[in-house]
Amino acid sequence: MKESPNTRVSLDELEDIGDVLGVASVLINDMRARRFQEFDFSWSKAIQTKGNSGVFLLYVHARLCSLEENCGISMNLECDLSVLVEPEAQDLIYQLARYEDIFVSAYSELQPNTIVQYLFVLGKKINLAMDYLQVKGNPIEIAQPRLLMFMAARRILANSLKILGLKPLRRM
């Protein structure tokens, strides 16, 4: 296998990453439906790279890790979050605030699909916010709050994936 100019992982890491992606594909596909609800397993749905899938969730996590590594600024926990007024930021913050309620609901109903469906929405909100709310190249008073928001999103996504038995990838 040749290494492309866009490859961010070494050839040695590919097998491990492939294993993680495969497990995530199957587990997320299985957990997306309510327990005891009949569904037809489909390999094509399980391994899809577009839309709601385990690969999508791991991709979003890796994208957030890349942002943290390459944004050129350090995280400041004391920054002014009141500058996060854009609709994309507000939507993402709302999803982050739902985290505890989602897990309480999933626990009380014993339904992991509640978490999976939440992560699909969260992943879409993260991607949308990352597309519109650049960190790199913005003034520090704008960049730091955005970075803090994205790192909170990464932590919630990573913890959720771990709870579901998956290994978040830093690169893929």
- Radius of gyration from the alpha-carbon trace, in angstroms: 17 Å
Structural class, please? mainly alpha
Mean pLDDT: 85
Unreliable stretches, pLDDT < 50, 5 or more residues?
Answer: 1-7
Total number of helices: 7
Count the beta strands: 0
Could you walk me through the main structural features you see in this protein, from its secondary elements to its overall organization?
- With 172 residues, the protein is an all-alpha fold.
- The chain is 63% helix and 0% strand.
- It is built from seven helices and no strands.
- α3 runs antiparallel to α7, α4 runs antiparallel to α6 and α6 runs antiparallel to α7.
- The longest helix is centred in the C-terminal third of the chain and has 24 residues.
- The chain is globular and about 50 Å long.
- The protein starts with 10 loop residues before the first helix and ends in a 9-residue tail after the last helix.
List keywords for this structure.
single chain, 172 residues, mainly alpha, globular
Briefly say what this structure is.
The chain has 172 residues and is mainly α. 63% of the residues lie in helices and 0% in strands. The protein contains 7 helices and no strands.
Layout: helices, strands, pairs:
Layout: H1 11-31, H2 43-46, H3 54-70, H4 87-97, H5 99-109, H6 112-132, H7 140-163
